[in-house]
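Chapter summary example.
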Amino acid sequence: MTRRELVLRLLAISIAAATHAEAQTAASPPPRVVYISGGNEVNARPFVDSIRKGMRELGQKEDSTFRLEILYANGDPTRVPGLIRDAVASRPAVLIVAGLLAARHARDATKTVPVVVATSSDMVDAGVVNSYARPGGNITGLNDLADELAVKRLELLKEMLPEASRFVLLVNPDFPATQKIERRVRAAARTLGIEVIRLDAKDPASLVMALESLEKSRSDALLVGGDSLFAVRARELIDRASAVRIPVAHYWPGTAEMGALFSHQADIFYNFQRAAYYVDRILKGAKPGDLPIEQPTRYELVVNKKTAKELGITIPPSILFRADKVIE
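The structure predicted for these 328 residues follows.
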């Protein structure tokens, strides 16, 4: 065989191998990653973008190394369990959920599909995972310290409203962390000389009823407890409270921009971006139960000076200095 014939044969083999690889790629679609959103396409977009950004930074290419699908509850948290069951039935490579209730629904829906919880209250205390260091099972993800930060929001409210003596705490009685949140808030309120009135809402209808009772509560402010209902219905909640001149302290990003007096929470967008790390590891063969639960390292305080002015509230310079963003 001449040198030229050898070169031509090797070239033919190389072309055949490449063609075979392309055929295999075309025949085998990329692994599916399904994200369950409690909101709609518009308000879910920043969180979806955060996931995509995290995946890109890890070298993952959408529609090549993975395919992202989103299922929307469209503001109705009661739809989330059904969406999770539908997603599990389709056998995705990874399921992404957000919030403690969604994490529990995912735990109940599957013991085999890998689940990444993008952000949640204490999953250990709620029995979703075994421990932070070794979650075990098929679930892992990120904590957002919602119960601990509820106390911080209470303290910020008191600092902004030094003469206040009566706050409403809005909670979902079915939310697994509600008892812990209420216990911590009441203990802190006693030291601050604040009376705490609890309002319950567990679905859109009961939320409307709770908000209608706000004016009669004669409260100085509304402190929002953790639950996806209060995130996806945030604008309605803030508008109704503002109509009766009650300032709102919220935990979800973007709510100060909607008119809340302030929002304070772990950096949720960063949590969603970090969720991509777990997805990437799982797609590369890691077991969710071996990936430790991350605690937040970044927090965000957004203060709305416009809302404060409309309500006759003077924001102390010390808070404005600490704020990550001030809405004028």
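To summarize the output: The first strand starts at residue 32 and ends at 37.
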